Amino acid sequence: MAETKWKVLELANKISNKKMGSKSGITAEDPRYRILEPVVTDEMAEVGLHLQFRVHQNAEQIAKKCQKSVEETAALLWDLAMAGVCFVNEENGVDVYWHDTWVPGVMEMIANNLPNVQAHPEIGGAFNDYGLQGGPRTVGNFPVGKGLMRVIPIESAIDGSSRKASYEEISKYLNENTIFSVSDCACRTSREAIGEGCGHLKEDMCIQLGHAAEYYIRTGRGKQITREEAYEIIHRAEENGLMHQIPNLDGSGKTHAICNCCGCGCFSLRSANMFINPDMVRSNYVAQVNPEHCVGCGECVDNCPTNALKLGQNLCTITPVLPPIRTETPRDMEWGPDKYNHNYRDNRVETLDMGTSPCKTNCPAHIAIPAYIKLASQGRYQEALKLIKKVNPFPAVCGRICPRLCEQECTRGNLDEAVAIDDVKKFIAEQDLHQEHRYIPEVKHDYHQKIAIIGGGPAGLTAAYFLAIEGYKVTVFEKNKNLGGMLTYGIPGFRLQKDVIQAEIDILKSIGVDFLTGITVGKDITIPQLRSQGYKAFFVAIGAQNGRRLGLVNEDAEGIQTGVDFLRRVHDEPSMSLKGKVVVIGGGNVAIDVARSASRVQVDQVSMFCLESRDTMPALEEEIEEALFEHIEIQNSWGPKEFVVENNKVRGVVFRKCIQVFDESKRFNPKYDENDTIFVEADHVLIAVGQSFDYGTLLEGTQVEFQRNGTMKVDSFTLQSKEPDIFAGGDIVSGPKFAIDAIALGKEGAISIHRFVNKGISLTYGRSRHVYKALDKQNVKYESYDHIPRERASVHHTKLQDQGFVESAGVLTEEQVRKETARCLQCGVTVVDEFMCVGCGQCTTKCKFDAIQLVKKYDAEGVSFEHLKPHVLKQMIKRKFKIAMRKAKEHFHFKKG
Fold it and tell me: If residue 260 lies in a helix (H) or strand (E), which one and from where to where?
């Protein structure tokens, strides 16, 4: 440990109004000394000891007290101001200096000297530790409205009759001042200095006013801005999900700054989130939800800085299900570490135990399905499309090929039939196919760093989309000639037309994503070479584009190929044909696609054979029905035993009866009746029993590890591999799954890469883990609902040879959409924990249906620091009385019981 700077320690005690060496005095281990030590010399401290709290003095006045020359004193005072220990302003042509409180004040000022923080990251650690040290002492002891910082509601949230006091309006502070500056957020800067950043926007986010603005401009901490630019920053903060706070110790209706904060980075909001002490920071407002308007989409929940909002259910139930009522708060209880939420940055929960909408819960990407259904019912199609694309950049694609996991769990399905969610999405997404109506997101920032996406399938394209929106320079490297991965090469045109894929890829081009096709990374260029070109991170999403073989003798004979290779050939050779009889081996969705594609290339007959019974086939039911409608024979519970080959040309397959596919542990462990076999004649055999991975030399020389099944080993949440700058997603991580699963991982990969390439940001802090729980559909009272038939899009079935690969499924009409969206039971709702709500109003800006609003619950004004102590003492006495009364009441009930 460095030798103690005694004068600096004395200065720390002076600013703290403590007597050095006393029982309550500051020691060298205290954060208040530790934040000064790297940037203040003992000589500077000698002058600093003569600064006064909020009393303005010039260099000549201070020089007399410290017995130094005016010139030397002025130089040292300037050094103190540059360090952040004191303010400096010009008054009547002369510089004057004074110090303020530690927080808000000195610590923020020190943390806003970015070169000092970069050189001395312990500054960030000291700022962080000061809040941890002081937080427990404030719990329950500050009355509402009298905390060190105060939430100021987003002004649009208190428009109209609820607006009561101008001191709770941002516009008051901006309109009353004439000089403004902006700096980076001191809290998020400090968090990043100690490797605990959260990824929320910190650059140019905190606005200084009046004397603070002059100080920040003169010392280079901030840049001067106009009032109009300040309003633009406020709007930008709100758009980025941030809320507003002000230093609350300048007196009622006064402040010198407006901070734009997040719940996971802000040291002030830590009072609410970690210590469960929202009274320390709250505004006079709380959020309230109108359940008749709320659809439980979760947009407000995602943006609540204190996790006060959670999703619940909004249906009548057989057994009553009620949201929890908070019975323990520090207002009338003794409060200690056992009550704190120490891991609040990692343990956000989106849903109450009562559960919420099963559609949103079961969607791998957790899209706000209830909201886009409601928006579509109101004819607000562009808003609906924008909402979907906050999570899924390919709604037109998914509207055609999604497995409809949301519909499988739709509450309405227990009444009659599930809402046609996917068809509604397809209708909404039709806008993306027409250039004049498509939704193109705005690029938020400009981060400059180059990111490489390896693989142009759904996971890679999704990662590229979200990274480009954040402002990164993204390049997608794709080994094939065309983009889309298995969307292009693995899904037949009768399910997904290629112009649909291209239309949504074109949007990525419009937001700046670059594409290099025909490039195999590892062969044509290597990851080390890309690093040397300035690429800062890599997202590997090469998919599972090889078919898996059976391992039988003669499997390499002419006429035998994998289903994946066949589908790729169909794409590459539109005029191809197969003659004779075709046998498809497999029972999944790919096998169905292979069989239906084969039936369109002039074959005589197509038969499918699979191990599973009809009821346990892994293919989706609707896909099976389509195959049967097209006269494809499906033979269940048969497994291939051997290929019959003549002159290296396949002539048929011997199948044996499968009597078990999985054992009691659900492991794949087929068993056969060897005495029950059949021979099936075949001119072509297409094997569709799974997919495999082809890494080539892509990851040679890296530390990347692999699972036994060939997938890449990555962190299940962050998707980071053992090679820190290599992330991965899609089938290469999950194994072959649906496009929506790959899309979900692509977005998570983009979030991780954004955090990784910015120094000091944690990959996990403040990040949603998507903890959703579906409501119990068996407990719902369905008697009050009418049975309404589901709307269905037209399907155009013609002779297969004529239809070819034209998409057969149509799109709902607008009238059908109106009828179908009316079938939604709107079974979710947002529930507010009013104690934890700090009244920031961020939720109101995200709601599309005016279902949540701020209501005034308190009537408290701030006071200046000089007048704060009596208010705190009075609160402490009242709290002790309440604690005693609660204990007496609990004791009485205990004895009575």
Answer: strand 257-261
